[in-house]
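Example protein was shown:

_____
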Amino acid sequence: MYGSFYNPNNKRVDAQNEDSQEYMQETFKALVDAIIPRTPELAEEYGKIQYYGALDFQTDEYLILSLNNYYSPLAKPTAEMLDMAAEQLVFALSITGDLNRLTMMGYYSEWYGYGSTRLKTPNQRKLEYFPLSWGQVEYPGPSLGYRALRA
């Protein structure tokens, strides 16, 4: 399991030193894993496609990219806020809704399907494969238009 409080050597990771990038990444991994964990129980009941969680689709990277590029450079301060909130068992309500929405958007969107181009600018991304989360919700994929249901 991921977490922001301790590194693999069980020592506190300081957000201000050279490990701050690792600190931020581990914090967002812990967050997205808490919001959309792997679900082996659902996979047993509904098939392997239901096994995967947000970490499998690098949704943490989507969150970091979104916070830094679409809001302003907010990923590092958000990671620090999440870490402080977790220590106090208090969650700041002003941003948790956005984090929840962004995690869901990153997980259920085409984000993971961009593969090796996912960290590029939107006009440089290419859909490399069909995202598994689309299969989980039976989304058929992009289309130039879907025919209207007629009676």
Remarks:
- The chain has one domain: 20-136.
- The mean pLDDT is 84.
- The chain is about 45% helix and 0% strand.
